[in-house]
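Bug report (template v2)

What were you trying to do?
Predict the complex of my protein with 4'-deoxy-4'-aminopyridoxal-5'-phosphate.

What happened?
Run completed; filing so the output is reviewed.

Input:
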Amino acid sequence: MDYQSAFQDAVRRVKAEGRYRVFADLLRRKGDFPVARWRTEDGKVRDVTVWCSNDYLGMGQLPCVVESMKKAIDDVGSGAGGTRNISGTTHYHVELERSLADLHQKDSALLFTSGYIANEATLATLGKILPGLIMFSDELNHASMIEGVKGARCEKRIWRHNDVAHLEELLAAAPKDAPKVIAFESVYSMDGDIGPLEAVCDLADKYGALTYLDEVHAVGLYGLRGAGIAERDGLMDRIDIIEGTLGKAFGVMGGYIAADGAIVDAIRSLAPGFIFTTALPPALAAGARASVEYLKAAHHLREQHQERAASLKTQLLAAGYPVMPSDTHIVPVKVGDPVLCKRISDMLLDEHGIYVQPINYPTVPRGTERLRLTPSPLHTDAMFDQLVEALDDVWERASEQAGVARG
Ligand code: PMP
């Protein structure tokens, strides 16, 4: 086997499809978000405005979050020193889990090292716990949920995105007594649309299913205390398992589920992705807890965030850009071609100091490549104007160049 060529060929195929990923080397400076320092390939350093961060509210730099992390490091050092079962559970983890259970008004919460692992480990473990399980998964669920459903080794039914009539058809056709889990998201991260929470809860009641809701792009951002769309819509008690991240609106890192005590105890006892890995560093748990508690009482930030997103959409539409319909803070601008998408992104960065990562297949379907903009309360009107002026300057030129490159 020529291993070298196999690896090189794999990358060549990715490149040929225009979806080879290049990381922007960025340094966020505390207090300056959304401005960051970008180091170019030839080692030069420039200030850029970041338009694609999932630290949606800039919480990762909020003094109370940063100070609680520093204090935790000063008090207890760096790592947790073990898995949660073997010496790695600290007061910080326990208190953060309490804070998250309170946020979602559930008996318990359980921390994982990321939202990805929370989804993958929990969904896979449901398959072990519920013999004969049938999993009903929205077709646009995140990769971590897809991996979890695969890992559950159970029967699965994929329902068309947000199509509750299709979901009902599939539920009605399944054996009445089989255990069922409906897995879906509240805010879909690439289109910015919202799942039909209430209708899914109604179907879950009718067909005796559990509901599993990924609120990764909603926690911190929706609801009076930031518990997500289920809180906003008064449905928290009807969602059996809520999954979230500490790495996006909360600005730190880690993932979790919140649910009733029996569910959490079973996942805690059986999920390899929880059991066999080192616990989060205490400082991350301290920072995340500070952030969660802060946002419970900072509804004004959520309002500012919504205002920024709405006015960016209005401004881009008025300037003639194809903003995709979005019900949320996510502002996707459709480009529809991977090469063009990357070119626009490169030119915005090189020529205007505007950083927005191109979103290509497989993150989104081919032909729907886009710029995914995520304005925060810290993006000013002047930054909005600068963005639109920069798009006006590069869009046509990039289209011509991409046409030449492809032709
Ligand atoms: N679910 C969804 C819908 C996501 O978009 C992501 C991250 N992109 C995750 C889960 C994983 O969360 P984390 O980044 O905390 O691993």
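What did the reviewer find?
DSSP finds 15 helices and 14 strands in the chain. The radius of gyration is 22 Å.
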